[in-house]
């Protein structure tokens, strides 16, 4: 009988979607992944997977996977050899350096690639003299890196995910985690079963708000007003932790003075909530024996995103809700390796291990470590600044790995023009994405299960996975591609394996020093910081002190900044965007998954029935949503989940980010995806 006697192998793996880092086993037969088995021993997922994780083989084995190097020939693609492709890439990058200098190069690392690939890419970029190396964290959690990092000394999740079970109050603000990070919901439900109170702050009714004991439907863009109101209430009622403040923080008196002219009633007026709701939230959060604060892009993707994060941190600190089981700050990160990519130095502000690029001693350290006579000093251009610079002729060539800015950037028409204006563009990908279609050379890359390497989840959990199946046809592992290009450019990244790169990471990134391959190969790996090979890893940060120079956390004085765009007679409605459970980021993977597309196949916009009536929009009808940047077609969904005066659109589909705002936070440079003034009319 067919199939009898064929050996099956179960190979441990990690989900390639969100940053929870759930583990599972790939069932492999004859070099092909044919099924999944759950991993109940995984400390975070406990065998659970969301719809995306369950459907992941539909992407891995997809017929549209890139299989051969491609060269553009007008509007067509020509299949070429790897030798020709690598030579052309080296020639294109070298020409830009020779004619315009190393700073004319831009590099986008990938938070879908492993730590070793991203470490090698940022190293190559800097050896070529370019400080312009960034990743998708710029568009989602750069305020966490700079805001939380500035306050606590470490811009990362303070506690592990399963520790939410120990919380007695959970404040989720600006995060629809039940859809974006479904497996996390199980730990919140466990906390609730143990008596925890759940507060959800979101203008929309969401899957997450269904869990709430208290749902605060504030006006969009008033998060700081709410948080300041909660701080004011806690201070007035004496429910702050004065000993924690005195022993472990700086700046409380300045913060307190900044709130002297502010009242809970004023916060209520600004947010559209009642004073009673704000006081209740403050009491629940400040008085519980262990409170957790969770946030995501509803907090970060604003022109005041960094201040939003600092306000969240201020609340946690003055209430002493940090550094204990169940008490801390949980930034809900998006991509499977966005934490690791930042740790590896694929950000313009930092070399590996968050050594500041503006600090000459950091640069000297890596000159010595890498044997480099010179390296660029100072902050380079962020991902969106690179697009501006490309339009201005300052960035001449770009190397993009596993990112799709034509779909993901705000105001994507501008991004497309920027990429089209380059002298040379190379894209390394698993599918021919919208960005890849603009490239001069496309390099077919191995997907996560087709290569060795480590990934770091949002709870700082470093996990190693071994290659389970071969890449399709001539597709290559990303590390091999990067090393071959670097060699052709005169820089010998002489790595023969991902393990060899990890050994260098162990030496150059102190938090990873004890995270050797053998130690992180077990299900669940190790959470950093893991400073030595006999160290168990750190589940909870800031237990005895903070990672700042003086060991104390820094409170900040912040005030709300309204969105860059507010409704007007021409654009009377506020558009916000976010995630939905069956899709992921640009949709380059999930929109190729038949089972997921069956659930949500097209772009839609949620409209309140009251607005729909005045706009003469019917449920299920096609509409055109327009902003200052243009218009896009979407299907209308009438729902009370959104308040009158606002609409919601998922950003996973082509068209959504054509119209989002590219106004930026002045500190972290994150764009304001979460607020754009729009108009909606029935489609013709």
**Quick one: CATH class of the largest domain?**
Alpha Beta
Shape: globular
Whole-number total of structural domains: 4
Tally of alpha and pi helices: 25
Task: List the main descriptive attributes of the protein structure presented here.
N-terminal domain of TfIIb, Rossmann fold, 7-stranded mixed sheet, single chain, 684 residues, globular
Could you provide a short overview of the structure?
With 684 residues, the chain is of the alpha/beta class.
Describe the protein's architecture and organization.
There is one protein chain. The protein has 684 residues and is α/β, with parallel strands linked by helices. 32% of the residues lie in helices and 19% in strands. The strands form seven sheets. The protein has a seven-stranded mixed beta sheet with strand order 5-4-18-17-16-6-7, with helices on both faces. It has a six-stranded mixed beta barrel with strand order 23-27-24-26-25-28. A five-stranded parallel beta sheet has the order 10-9-8-12-13.
Spell out the blueprint of helices and strands.
Layout: E1 9-14, E2 23-29, E3 32-38, H1 51-54, H2 57-60, E4 70-73, E5 76-79, H3 82-100, E6 105-108, H4 115-127, E7 133-134, H5 137-140, H6 142-152, E8 169-173, H7 177-180, H8 182-193, E9 197-201, E10 214-216, H9 223-237, H10 242-248, E11 249-250, H11 252-258, H12 264-271, H13 275-287, E12 291-295, H14 297-300, H15 305-318, E13 328-331, H16 338-343, E14 350-351, E15 355-356, H17 360-370, H18 383-391, E16 397-401, H19 405-408, H20 412-420, E17 424-429, E18 441-444, E19 453-456, E20 461-465, H21 478-488, H22 498-508, H23 517-520, E21 526-527, E22 553-554, E23 573-578, H24 594-599, E24 604-607, H25 609-615, E25 622-627, E26 630-638, E27 646-650, E28 676-682
Parallel strand pairs: 6-7, 6-16, 8-9, 8-12, 9-10, 11-22, 12-13, 16-17, 17-18, 23-27, 24-26
Antiparallel strand pairs: 1-2, 2-3, 4-5, 4-18, 14-15, 19-20, 20-21, 23-28, 24-27, 25-26, 25-28
